[in-house]
Amino acid sequence: MAFNDLLKQVGGVGRFQQIQVTLVILPVLLMASHNTLQNFTAAIPTHHCRPPTHANLSKDGGLEAWLPRDQQGRLESCLHFTSPQWGPPFPNGTEANGTGATEPCTNGWIYDNSTFPSTIVTEWDLVCSHRALRQMAQSLYMVGVLLGAMMFGYLADRLGRRKVLILNYLQTAVSGTCAAFAPNFAVYCTFRLLSGMSLASISLNCLTLNVEWMPIHTRAHVGTTIGYTYTLGQFLLAGLAYAVPHWRHLQLLVSVPYFAFFIYSWFFIESARWYASSGRLDFTLRALQRVARINGKQDEGAKLSMEVLQGSLQKELTTGKGQASAIELLRCPTLRRLFLCLSMLWFATSFAYYGLVMDLQGFGVSMYLIQVIFGAVDLPAKLVCFLVINYLGRRPAQMASLLLAGICILVNAVVPQDQSIVRTSLAVLGKGCLASSFNCIFLYTGEVYPTMIRQTGMGMGSTMARVGSIVSPLVSMTAELYPSVPLFIYGAVPVAASAVIVLLPETLGQPLPDTVQDLENRWVPTQRGAVTHPRKGKLTRQQREQQKHMVPLQASAQEKTGLQD
C-alpha cells in the first residue's frame, strides 16, 4: 500500500517517531497503577469490633472479654458478645460468666494500621455487611473503562486520535485528583468511573496513533514497547504503594502527572493515515511535510504535493470519505466475523487476567512482594511473545499464550491448598501468559481492522475485555460452593477462546488494511475456501446487504470484486 512508502519517504523511523512514540507511551507507565490501584487503596487490614461505649475493659477483663473467636482461634471480625465473658464460672462450672450471645458490630471497628495506615475500607468501614461495596468500587471503575472504550473509540474515528488523547489526559488528571479528595464513598466511585473511561481511551489511542505513524516492520516493536511500559508500571505501583501507604496520597500521586501529559500532548501530530482515510488531503500533506522537517528530510517533504498524494492515496481518497459506525461491525459479514472472533479473545484474556491479579491478598504473602513478582514475570513472558509475534506470526503467539494460561489455571485448581509455592508459581506463570495475550491482542486488533473503522473496532474489543473484568469478580463468589470452582472457570474460558484464532487472518509483514476489500483479499487465502468470491455476474444476499448499508468504501469494494471475478 502506498502510505507505507510515504512514511519511508519522510524518514521512516526518524526523530519524530522516536520522540512522539516515547511521549505517547509515557502515560502508560501510570496506567497499571490506576487499573490495580485498589489492591492497595482498598486493602482490608485485620479488624475487629469496637467494644460497646458502656464497656469497662479494665473491669471486664480486657478487650477479648467482648470478642468471640472463630474455629481457627482468631478474633471474629464482625461479631462481639452482648456482655463480657470473663469472671467466675457458673455453679455448674460449664460456662463463663455471661450468656455467650453475640451480635454484629454496633460501634464500628478497630483496624490494624501497621501495614495500611489508611484505606477506603478503614475510612468508610467497607467490611462485614458492607464488604460488597469494596468490590463494587472496582466494578464501577471497570464499567467506566467499558463505557470509555465504546464512546471514545468511536470519537477517535470521528474526531481524530490526537484530540481525544488530549481530552483523556485532562479527564484522568481531574477525576483522579478529585477522587483523592472525595468526601464520601459515592463521590469516590463517581470519579473512579470517570477515570476508567479516560484511561480506556488512552490505552487504545496510544497504540493506534503510534502504529499509524510507523512502517510495517516496526509495528511489533511498538506493541512490545507499550507492553513493557505497562509492566514497569506494575513495579512502580509496588514501590509507590510501599512508600506512600495512605490511600489519598497514593491516589493523588498517580493522578497529578497526567496534568503534565495533558500539556505536552498539544504538540502531538495527528495521524496522517487518519486524515487520508477521512478524505482530508490538505491536512495529510501538512502532517507529512511537518514530519519530514523534524526527521531532517526537508527535500523529500518538498517533493510532496496535492497531486502526488492524490495519485498515491487514490484508493483512500475515493473510498474513505465516510466514517463507518459501530453498527457496521455487525452489518458487514466480513467485519461481523472478525468482531465476534476478536470479542471472544478480548473477553477471555481480561476475564482470566483480572481473576488473578485482583486477589493479591489471597496468596497469603506480602502484597508488595506478589505485586513485584507479578510484574517480573511479564519481562520474560513478553520477550518470548515478541519473538513469536515477530518471527512466527500474531496467530501462533495469541493461541499459545491463551492456551498455556488456561492450562496453568486449570492445573492450579487441582493442586492441594497446602501447596502454596506450587499454586503461587502456577498463578504467576498463568498471569505472565495472560499479559502476553494482552500484548498480542492489542497489536493484532490494531493491524487487522481497516483504517476507516480501526479505532471503533479497538474500542469494541476493549469493551468486551471490560465485560470480562466486570464478570470476573462475580465468578470469584462461586468459591463459597467449592474453593476451586473459580479457577476451573478462569482456566476453561481462555482454553475455549484459543480455538477461534484459527478463523482469523495473519497480519505478520502485512500492510495495514484501509478498506474492507483489503481485509477480504487477505482473508480469502487464509480461510482456504471458507470465504468465497461471488459468482460471475451475481452477488450473494450478504453482499447485496453490504452494498445497501455500508459506506461507499465497501460498496465500491464489492463492485471491484465482482468485476475481478
Write up this protein.
The protein is mostly helical. The chain is built from 28 helices and four strands. The chain has helices spanning 2-9, 15-25, 28-35, 38-41, 57-60, 120-124, 131-159, 161-180, 185-212, 219-243, 247-253, 257-264, 272-277, 281-294, 298-303, 306-312, 314-319, 328-331, 333-357, 367-376, 378-391, 394-414, 420-448, 454-476, 485-497, 516-527, 541-549, 552-564, and strands at residues 47-49, 79-81, 102-104, 109-111. Strands 1-4 form a two-stranded antiparallel sheet. It has a two-stranded antiparallel ribbon with strand order 2-3. Helix 7 (131-159) packs antiparallel against helix 24 and helix 19 packs antiparallel against helix 25. It is elongated. The chain starts with a helix and ends with a helix. 49% of the residues are buried. It is a multi-pass membrane protein. One of its GO terms (biological process) is monoatomic anion transport. It is found in: Endomembrane system. Residues 555-565 have a biased composition (Polar residues). Residues 525-565 are annotated as: Disordered.
Molecular shape:
elongated
The percent range for strand residues is under 5%
Spatial strand arrangement across the major sheet:
1-4
What would you report as the Rg, rounded to the nearest angstrom?
A: 28 Å
Region (Disordered): 525-565
InterPro entries: MFS_dom (IPR020846), MFS_sugar_transport-like (IPR005828), MFS_trans_sf (IPR036259), Orgcat_transp/SVOP (IPR004749)
Transmembrane segments: 136-155, 167-187, 225-244, 250-269, 338-356, 368-392, 399-415, 421-444, 487-504
Biased composition (Polar residues): 555-565
